[in-house]
Amino acid sequence: CSNVCCVFFFLIFIVDSAPFHLGILLTTGNRWKVMRCFSVMTLQDFGMGKRSIEDRIQEEARCLVQELRKTNSLPCDPTFLLGCAPCNVICSVIFHNRFDYKDQHFLYFMGKFNENVKILSSPWIQICNNFPVLIDYFPGSHKKLLKNIADVKQYVLEKVQEHQESLDMDNPRDFIDCFLIKMNKEKGNQQTEFTTEALINIVTDLFGAGTETTSTTLRYGLLLLLKHPEVTAKVQEEIDQVIGRHRKAVLHEIQRYIDLIPINLPRAVTCDIKFRNYLIPKVRLFCPHCPSVLLKFLYSQYGFNLQPK
């Protein structure tokens, strides 16, 4: 399993630790609907899922290739660089700015995320997840985890404050500007969900959900394409013929093959549901187990082979 399986442990750990939930990942009900609707619409305005974001992705791809060329074809671990690239694309939408890979603020930001991934992958966090009472009474890496989360949120808060000082209500530059404009419009609403705390949590959610999943797919994608030259040849042929469908099939198959998120995000049902002789009670938290769906049937047919179709 990849490090992305730690997403589940991260969520449960924070659910047990946080006094209240903001953002997108850990919210429910009306708050989740409002925050998700605003986030999706705003991200689409800045190009998500559209051709307009391709320029940012292509710019970042060029920067990534330049950094890889600096290795002079010597063996290297590309993990850090492959994490920087998707993080910078998100930065361009959230902060209206991409960072040089040597920028100290960027390195600090990435360092906190990378350290948390390592902590969340440790057996100790999984033990805390099963026995949350340990969190309050035992020392351990979970203390460092919470400190890193607080440091990341403090960094995001500083960025929000910078945006507030230069905000143009008629010319939003990025996601943060759009959120701040919405906050100003709802100043008189006592029930508003648009607060500074909510903005900080949403930005943290977007980075946490987007950076590790994308970088892990890229990392294993390189590894699997090296292992399966026949698939690489098909992808290259398609690129040469002006990009067709096989490229997309390869990306989806890589994510299935590496079991990118073995245990999915927590879900809850609004009424009792009976499914294949299993009863899922109303508002009972459960987590879909992806390997049973993605791997068991296909492995029985194809074994451990990459099968993009």
Automatic annotation (TrEMBL):
<dbReference type="InterPro" id="IPR001128">
    <property type="entry name" value="Cyt_P450"/>
</dbReference>
<dbReference type="GO" id="GO:0006082">
    <property type="term" value="P:organic acid metabolic process"/>
</dbReference>
<dbReference type="InterPro" id="IPR036396">
    <property type="entry name" value="Cyt_P450_sf"/>
</dbReference>
<comment type="similarity">
    <text>Belongs to the cytochrome P450 family.</text>
</comment>
<dbReference type="GO" id="GO:0005789">
    <property type="term" value="C:endoplasmic reticulum membrane"/>
</dbReference>
<keyword id="KW-0408">Iron</keyword>
<dbReference type="GO" id="GO:0020037">
    <property type="term" value="F:heme binding"/>
</dbReference>
<dbReference type="GO" id="GO:0005506">
    <property type="term" value="F:iron ion binding"/>
</dbReference>
<dbReference type="Pfam" id="PF00067">
    <property type="entry name" value="p450"/>
</dbReference>
<protein>
    <recommendedName>
        <fullName>unspecific monooxygenase</fullName>
        <ecNumber>1.14.14.1</ecNumber>
    </recommendedName>
</protein>
<keyword id="KW-0479">Metal-binding</keyword>
<dbReference type="InterPro" id="IPR002401">
    <property type="entry name" value="Cyt_P450_E_grp-I"/>
</dbReference>
<keyword id="KW-0560">Oxidoreductase</keyword>
<keyword id="KW-0732">Signal</keyword>
<dbReference type="GO" id="GO:0016712">
    <property type="term" value="F:oxidoreductase activity, acting on paired donors, with incorporation or reduction of molecular oxygen, reduced flavin or flavoprotein as one donor, and incorporation of one atom of oxygen"/>
</dbReference>
<keyword id="KW-0503">Monooxygenase</keyword>
<dbReference type="GO" id="GO:0006805">
    <property type="term" value="P:xenobiotic metabolic process"/>
</dbReference>
<keyword id="KW-0349">Heme</keyword>
<feature type="signal peptide">
    <location>
        <begin position="1"/>
        <end position="17"/>
    </location>
</feature>
<keyword id="KW-0472">Membrane</keyword>
<keyword id="KW-0492">Microsome</keyword>
<keyword id="KW-0256">Endoplasmic reticulum</keyword>
<dbReference type="InterPro" id="IPR050182">
    <property type="entry name" value="Cytochrome_P450_fam2"/>
</dbReference>
